[in-house]
Amino acid sequence: MTASARLLIVGPQGSGKGTQGVRIAETFGIPVVSTGDIFRANIKGGTELGQKVTAILDRGDLVPDELTGEIVRDRLAQDDAANGFLLDGYPRNTAQVGHLEEFLAGRGESLDAVILLDVPRDESISRLSLRAIEQGRSDDTEDAIAHRLDIYERETAPIIDVYSEKGIVDRIDGVGSLDEITERIVAALDARGLRVAV
Ligand code: ADP
């Protein structure tokens, strides 16, 4: 049996949203759609898209909405996303929220829940410093990190208000062990009637 859940995970850089997103998607049997991962795979593969976005990612800037939206729509149109998906990194500003809502409405769908991972700024910065050493991501330089956190606060945090008005935000304490945090998220989704398939 497959569970159907249309989810978005949001949190500042270093909140662990990538890691928890993968765990939750596995639990529900749905694909993760991570715009950052899609861009990085294209950069690595040297595709035309990759060449277009390399400098943007390295600076920590946002890729233009139109281009990002097209990539997400293509990805969500694939068969494996028909019964659900977990979005990580998109939407990232209120314009992208509008695009996504319109696209989903065209399919008779909407998001079921928005998981907001709450992590204090000093905790996320120390996690990012560790990630910079472990993964060597080219946008984990001090300047790019600070820039991305600023964009998060200015452009991404406001999307939480939009979704809060719809009553679909679950604020989750993102400090604790990986398993504890996954359990908190699963419990919050369960309380919404989004049950893991057995
Ligand atoms: P982080 O959350 O640590 O910044 P992501 O993997 O989510 O990492 O994103 C990495 C980069 O990919 C962003 O800094 C941005 O350049 C680009 N990107 C990802 N998602 C989007 C989006 N929805 N809109 C525009 N640019 C995006």
Automatic annotation (TrEMBL):
Region NMP, residue ranges: 34-63
- Biochemical pathway: Purine metabolism; AMP biosynthesis via salvage pathway; AMP from ADP: step 1/1
Q: Name one GO molecular function term.
A: AMP kinase activity
Keyword line: ATP-binding, Cytoplasm, Kinase, Nucleotide biosynthesis, Nucleotide-binding, Transferase
The record's subunit annotation is: Monomer.
**Briefly, what is this protein's role?**
Catalyzes the reversible transfer of the terminal phosphate group between ATP and AMP. Plays an important role in cellular energy homeostasis and in adenine nucleotide metabolism.
Q: What is known of its domains?
A: Consists of three domains, a large central CORE domain and two small peripheral domains, NMPbind and LID, which undergo movements during catalysis. The LID domain closes over the site of phosphoryl transfer upon ATP binding. Assembling and dissambling the active center during each catalytic cycle provides an effective means to prevent ATP hydrolysis.
The name this protein goes by in its record: Adenylate kinase
**Source species:** Microbacterium galbinum
Higher taxonomy: Bacteria, Bacillati, Actinomycetota, Actinomycetes, Micrococcales
Q: What's the name of its gene?
A: adk
